[in-house]
Design a protein that fits this description.
Blueprint lengths: L1 H20 L2 H17 L3 H18 L6 H13 L3 H17 L3 H20 L5 H23 L9 H17 L3 H17 L7 H16 L3 H18 L2 H17 L3 H16 L5 H41 L5 H21 L3 H18 L2 H17 L3 H18 L2 H17 L3 H38 L5 H12 L28 H14 L1 H5 L3 H9 L44 H8 L6 E5 L5 E5 L6 E6 L7 E5 L5 E6 L30 E6 L2 E6 L4 E2 L2 E2 L1 H14 L3 H4 L3 E10 L2 E2 L6 H8 L4 E10 L1 H12 L6 H8 L7 E3 L11 H10 L4 E3 L7 H14 L6 E4 L9 H6 L2 H6 E5 L10 H10 L5 E3 L7 H10 L8 E3 L8 H11 L7 E3 L7 H13 L4 E3 L6 H12 L6 E5 L7 H5 L9 E5 L6 H13 L7 E3 L6 H11 L8 E3 L8 H15 L4 E7 L5 E7 L5 E3 L5 H20 L2 H16 L5 E3 L7 H14 L3 E6 L2 E6 L18
Parallel strand pairs: 3-5, 6-12, 13-14, 14-15, 15-16, 16-17, 17-18, 18-19, 19-20, 20-21, 21-22, 22-23, 23-24, 24-28
Antiparallel strand pairs: 1-2, 4-5, 6-7, 8-9, 10-11, 10-12, 25-26, 26-27, 28-30, 29-30
Helix pairs in contact: 1-2, 2-3, 3-4, 4-5, 4-6, 5-6, 6-7, 6-8, 7-8, 8-9, 8-10, 9-10, 10-11, 10-12, 11-12, 12-13, 12-14, 13-14, 14-15, 15-16, 16-17, 17-18, 17-19, 18-19, 19-20, 20-24, 26-30, 29-31, 31-32, 35-36, 36-37, 37-38, 38-39, 41-42, 42-45, 44-45, 44-46, 45-46
Length: 1287
């Protein structure tokens, strides 16, 4: 490096002398030399600056031919900076100039560079055929010229051997990219032979490139020893000649080799070596990102490998179990469990490319499928084995196993499976360079899929015709409706195309239960095959296509989608794990018995349900159950009148489909429409709600007003108001007055009491939802937006209308986040804003907006000519680039107004550095800046620091989740922040902070009175936090927010903290730190402290255990400040088992003792509950208070549930938690997700929650368990969307 510095210094001295003398040729030459020195040091931006000087001088003062080396160098720099369009511009200019000058040497060099650029473009895309054609063209041309130059060199000074060798390297690299590995190996090996023949130096850079690509080729061919030898030769040469970039890429290849052979520790070691080299090159950001991503991938692979080892232990246990279960009713069940374990092992092996293990597990899975007599699973297993051999490049074996899979799928008539097998066979033949046979296989696959699709279309058309006939006919009685169902059910062609192929896999028409001995199944199969032999002989390929079309599932590139186990609805099946029927769920369920069915349907109507069909008619559908069929009412079906599916037991499952659409009087554009909205098979809630406002009837798409599976009443009111406004005549709309909908009634009761779309749909069978208008509100922006939509022939975006209608924000606050807006679709809104001119906040977050929108917004701000009034600009999570900030820099109106700028989550890169610097200098009112996750590095952070001075009013700064950011840069930034008088909050989340940064933070905390510090994911550890805590929390004033999530804190730290020191914090986040129950006790002490000011406490993933969760909530009985508490993901493995064991021991000695709990409810009444450990009974004392009775009744129900479904330990824990929740009266939001609580326990908790909080809300779904008040509604705001409060 000292040698390079002296060389650079000498070159700059020579450049300055030439410039002073006016010797332009020498000035250009030395500028090129300086650029080349910076290039070799990895300083590409600086190199580009000097090469541009060379280009400008040459263009202005020298001949055109003098531009040739300059264009080549600039093109190479842009290529290394991955600015491909600029690279192509200069490289094409280089080739053009070379042709004009008839310079064959420069033509060869230019063609080589162009080929490399097009090769890079192709390698970064999936199907860029244009780039690969161009790469091949230019590489071939370069090879021809290199051969010609070698034969007849224009000068005796050079033999052009280097160009000839590089041409071989480039052609080999291209063949490798096309997966032609044998050709690539031959070309690259020939390149090395030329090096030996011509006695090229052992440490020549041309050799290093050949070894590099040969290493890659041998890696793909799975010749690990040869790959390792060539990669090490590449590294050795690059190290010898000081080529750090090449050396880093060599270590990347070595890491990849070890990763593919599952030697993950060695892989990470080599990746770290590559990372160190890449970071020593200033502008190799892309290479650094690639290496960091590789390291993350390997770490994930380590986790998967650990999971495989655990699952292998589980498989061994299952194998021991099956030995004892042979010949018993449990044999099939054990085999199915073993099959499930093997499927998981196969999938995980595929994830980490452990193909030897994949093959082993797939063969074992094949054996189990054979024992199960399951042809579908057998076909899948054959395909898995074939895939293993394909990836191991044993193509003959792969073809053999794929053919077995093909034959099995033919046997069961699965066209889908046959198509996928043919695709895989085509891939194998393509890899074996048998391209004609591969084409035939692909053609056959296409043909079979075409048959399948045609059959599916015909099936849908037949069902549509049957539906129309049913609508045209009027059944006189319910009996006729039943007859129609029976007749339709007898026709196989009306079966649902989404019926799983699993129910037909054995083709016997019989259902097998898990406890049936396998011998019985085998005999049954033999008997069934004898009975159906004649019939099977008459089946044609077309009939097989009919059968297979009924089991069509979504086809993906991964053959695992073949099996068809993901179902739209559940019918009777032979799989014990795949088909779960639970009365707790509102979907994927059949009615198991008459009593359950009657209990559910008694809440609806005696015999008929009226639903709005696709064309708006209401169909009476009989729901009485006959002795020969099950009828399942499910809201999650496709848009057909009804479906019939036949299970293996020949029982008919008649499934009532709810409507996917209805006849709508108005569409979103306000125009009358008699046509039904298009049905969407993919939408779970593709339904329409019929709403009457006065004499007008409006049909509202349910997806517009649902959140998760719940109705959002406020959204429903807003959509109803907007649609009502749209259907008004133009003259009435001209005032911009929209109705205020206060109440929506359904069946005479407030709709807010109905939680799900299903419940609403039940009511809609008999009555219409009624909305009452309680006034009018002027919404001028909505009026202008609708008008501009009409002018531009655009349909108004309902999401935008809902946001603009929001009654909780003023007209000066424009919030249109998450509206799927793009640069074109936002045009009507931009025009409306330009007409409105004045507004104080613009939130365009979570859309798909690009730089075009920013240009339009600059015109809006400029046209307003408003130089006063605060402005908040929230643009996070869009597609803005660095030049979007240029529009702010050039808009003088914003210099006085802009106070909050959130541009996080956009790919700004370091190109935005100068723009951010200008914004910080010119926008004198800016007090909040968020550039989190913007792909910026130390360079941009340093520019931010340089732009700050003591006159800045900046109070909030967020730079988290950017990489790489060095510790020195952060220290410099903190030093600048300490000079600011108003600075309050700093967000460094996701940055790795060392001791120098922690020391600087302590100094900053000692200098300023910070109110917030976000250090999530910084891994500063226990020592860092202890060092920081005292200066940070020293003041008597409240500390608003402290985020220490995922910082590597331990239970010892939490146990030893000074509780009084943390009492001043309002928001504390300790997520992801192993606090354990010991640390939880200290937090309990903090919560019961009378001086505690905490309002928000996040303890997610802290390994507290359920006992620790209980203690935390119990501590809230004495806390009057905490409003939000997150205790999600805190279960400890086997904790309930331990509790049960402890309780059992206690029960042996105190068998008849009872534990008395006291539940204090809202009216200071008490309910005494006792849990009997023998009989799990909960007794509730008498009470005169109705509220107390209701609460007690809720708890008693849960107790009886505990009696049925849970151990006494679980029941006791549930009751104690319910009591604690009832006593935490100040709490407004509680998150208990993913803590293994049952649905009965969730209802018990909610009963306690609602006993002291009215109104309340719950969000319980698949592990999620949120309880909240209406004001603190859960999931209402994404973490990145929380607003910064003004000073």
């Amino acid at each position: 490096m000292p040698c390079q510095d002296s060389e650079l210094k000498a070159a700059k001295t020579a450049y300055r002398s030439a410039r002073v003398e006016g010797n332009h040729r020498e000035e250009a030459r030395w500028a090129n030399v300086i650029g080349d020195i910076h290039k070799n040091r990895g300083e590409y931006v600086e190199a580009l600056k000097w090469l541009r000087i060379d280009y400008d001088v040459s263009l202005k003062y020298l001949l055109e031919k003098d531009l040739l080396p300059t264009c080549q160098s600039i093109g190479e720099m842009y290529l290394r900076l991955e600015q491909f369009s600029e690279a192509l511009t200069y490289q094409k200019k280089h080739l053009e100039l070379a042709r004009d000058a008839d310079d064959v040497v420069e033509q060869q060099r230019a063609s080589t560079q162009l080929g490399r650029t097009y090769h890079e473009l192709f390698s970064r895309s999936d199907h860029d055929h244009n780039s690969i054609r161009n790469a091949k063209k230019y590489f071939n041309f370069a090879m021809e010229l290199a051969v010609a130059l070698k034969k007849k060199p224009p000068s005796s000074k050079s033999s052009f051997l280097k160009e000839y060798i590089d041409a071989h390297n480039n052609k080999g690299m291209l063949e490798m990219e096309l997966d032609n590995f044998q050709e690539a190996k031959e070309i690259l090996t020939r390149g090395l032979e030329i090096c030996d023949e011509e006695e090229v130096s052992e440490f020549d850079d041309g050799r290093s490139r050949l070894h590099h690509n040969l290493g890659n080729v041998y890696m793909e061919l799975r010749n690990w020893n040869e790959a390792r030898r060539n990669i090490k030769m590449d590294i050795q040469i690059c190290n010898k000649i000081g080529h750090r970039q090449g050396e880093a890429k060599g270590y990347i290849n070595l890491g990849e080799l070890h990763s593919r052979t599952q030697k993950y520790e060695e892989a990470i070691c080599f990746y770290n070596k590559a990372l160190g080299l890449a970071r020593s090159l200033e502008d190799e950001d892309a290479l650094v990102r690639q290496i960091e991503q590789n390291i993350r991938t390997v770490k994930e692979a380590v986790k998967v490998m650990d999971e495989i080892k655990k699952e292998e232990q589980n498989l061994k246990k299952l194998k021991r179990d099956i030995a004892a279960a042979r010949g018993t009713p449990n044999e099939r069940k054990c085999l199915l469990q073993q099959n499930g374990s093997l499927e998981r092992l196969v999938e995980k092996s595929r994830m980490i490319s452990a193909w030897e293990k994949h093959c082993e597990f797939a063969k074992e899975k094949k054996r189990i499928a054979s024992e199960l007599c399951d042809k579908q699973r057998l076909g899948d297993s054959y395909m898995d084995v074939g895939e293993s051999y394909q990836k191991l490049r044993k193509f003959n074996k792969a073809i053999k196993w794929y053919k077995k899979s093909w034959e099995m799928y033919q046997t069961i008539g699965s066209l889908e499976g046959q198509a996928l097998v043919k695709i895989n066979i085509g891939n194998v033949l393509d890899s074996a360079q048998k391209w004609r046979q591969a084409l035939d296989a692909y053609t056959e696959s296409y043909r079979r899929l075409k048959i399948l699709i045609d059959k599916l279309k015909n099936s849908i058309e037949d069902e549509s015709g049957a539906k129309n006939m049913a609508e045209d006919c009027c059944s006189e009685t319910d009996t006729e409706a039943d007859n129609n169902l029976s007749i339709a059910g007898s026709d196989d062609d009306l079966c649902s195309p989404h019926t799983s192929s699993r129910s037909k896999a054995l083709s016997t028409g019989e259902e097998f239960i898990d406890d049936m001995p396998l011998l019985s199944i085998y005999q049954s199969l033999k008997g069934s095959s004898r009975k159906t032999t004649g019939h099977m002989e008459d089946l044609t390929n077309t009939k097989q296509a009919d059968k297979s079309s009924k089991s069509l599932t979504n086809l993906t590139g991964n053959h695992q989608a073949v099996v068809g186990r993901k179902r739209v609805r559940v019918i009777l099946s032979d799989d014990e794990d795949e088909m779960e029927c639970s009365s707790k769920r509102s979907h994927d369920c059949v009615l198991e018995d008459r009593s359950t069915y009657d209990a559910n349907m008694s809440k609806v109507s005696p015999s008929n349900i009226k639903v709005v069909s696709e064309n708006g008619s209401k169909l009476p559908i009989n729901v009485e159950e006959s002795s020969s069929s099950f009828k399942c009412w499910s809201p999650h079906t496709l848009a057909k009148t009804c479906r019939h599916s036949r299970s293996m037991s020949n029982d008919l499952v008649a499934e009532l489909d709810l409507p996917s659409g209805s006849k709508c009087n108005t569409d979103a554009s306000g125009k009358p429409s008699d046509a039904a909205p298009p049905a969407s098979n993919s939408s779970q809630y593709d339904k329409y709600i019929e709403c009457q406002i006065g004499n007008d009837l409006i049909h509202i798409e349910a997806t517009w007003c649902t959140a998760s599976d719940k109705l959002d009443i406020e959204s429903l009111k807003a959509v109803a108001a907007c649609l009502y406004y749209l259907q008004l005549p133009t003259q009435k709309r001209s005032d911009g007055l929209l109705p205020v909908v206060q109440h929506i009634l359904c069946a005479g009761r407030d709709l807010e009491s109905l939680e799900t779309v299903e419940n609403l749909q039940i009511c809609l069978g008999n009555v219409t939802v009624e909305a009452s208008i309680d006034g009018w509100i002027h919404k001028r922006l909505i009026k202008m937006y609708v008008d501009f939509c009409k002018q531009l022939s655009e349909k108004p975006n309902m999401k935008v209308l809902k946001k603009l209608y929001n009654l909780e924000v003023s007209d000066d606050e424009i919030v249109v986040s998450e509206c799927d807006l793009q640069d074109l679709s936002i045009t009507p809104l931009i025009n409306a804003l330009q007409s409105q001119k004045a507004f104080s906040m613009l939130d365009l977050s979570h859309n798909l907006l690009g730089n075009g929108t920013m240009e339009a917004l600059q015109k809006v701000f400029t046209a307003s000519d408003q130089h006063y009034g605060d402005l908040t600009l929230d643009l996070h999570c869009n597609r803005f680039g660095p030049t979007a900030l240029l529009q702010i820099c050039e808009c003088s109106v914003l210099f006085d107004r802009l106070e909050v700028l959130n541009i996080s989550g956009n790919r700004l890169t370091d190109a935005c550095g100068s723009y951010l610097s200008t914004i910080l200098k010119k926008c004198k009112a800016l007090y909040s800046l968020n550039v989190e996750n913007c792909c910026i590095t130390s360079r941009t952070i340093q520019k931010i620091a340089d732009a700050l001075d003591s006159t800045s009013v900046l109070a909030y700064l967020c730079i988290g989740h950017n990489s790489p950011v060095s510790g020195n840069t952060i220290v410099n930034l903190l030093s600048k922040l300490s000079t600011l008088k108003r600075f309050l909050e700093l967000n460094l989340s996701g940055l790795k902070l060392g001791k120098p940064v922690v020391d600087a933070l302590c100094q900053l905390a000692g200098t300023l009175s910070l109110s917030g510090l976000i250090l999530g994911g910084t891994s500063i550890g226990t020592e860092g936090v202890m060092q920081l805590a005292e200066p940070l929390l020293k003041g008597a004033e409240e500390f608003v927010k402290l985020d220490l999530s995922y910082c590597g804190l331990t239970s010892n730290f939490v146990s030893n903290i000074n509780v009084n020191l943390f009492c001043s914090i309002l928001e504390l986040n300790l997520e992801g730190n192993p606090i354990l129950p010991e640390g939880g006790n200290t937090l309990c002490s903090l919560l019961v402290n009378p001086s505690c000011s905490l309002k928000v406490l996040v303890l997610r993933k802290c390994q507290l255990g359920l006992a620790g969760v209980l203690h935390i909530i119990e501590a809230l009985a004495e806390n009057n400040s905490l409003e939000e508490l997150n205790l999600a993901d805190n279960t400890v493995p086997n904790e309930l088992y331990s509790l049960k064991s402890d309780l059992t021991v206690k029960g042996d000695t105190e068998k008849h003792d009872q534990i008395l709990d006291t539940i204090k409810l809202a009216g200071n009444q008490e309910v005494h509950c006792s849990v009997n450990l023998d009989y799990h009974q909960l007794e509730v004392a008498d009470s005169e208070d109705d509220t107390v009775k209701a609460a007690a009744s809720g708890i008693d129900d849960s107790a009886s549930s505990c009696q049925r479904n849970s151990s006494s330990a679980e029941c006791l824990l549930t009751q104690q938690l319910a009591v604690a929740i009832g006593k935490a009266k100040k709490l407004q939001l509680l998150d208990l997700s993913n803590n293994a609580f049952s649905s009965e326990a969730a209802e018990t908790f909610y009963n306690s929650w609602t006993s002291v909080r009215v109104p309340s809300q719950k969000h319980i779904n698949e592990g999620i368990m949120h309880f909240s008040t209406k004001e603190k509604k859960c999931c209402r705001v994404k973490p990145c969307c929380k607003k910064v409060l003004p000073l």
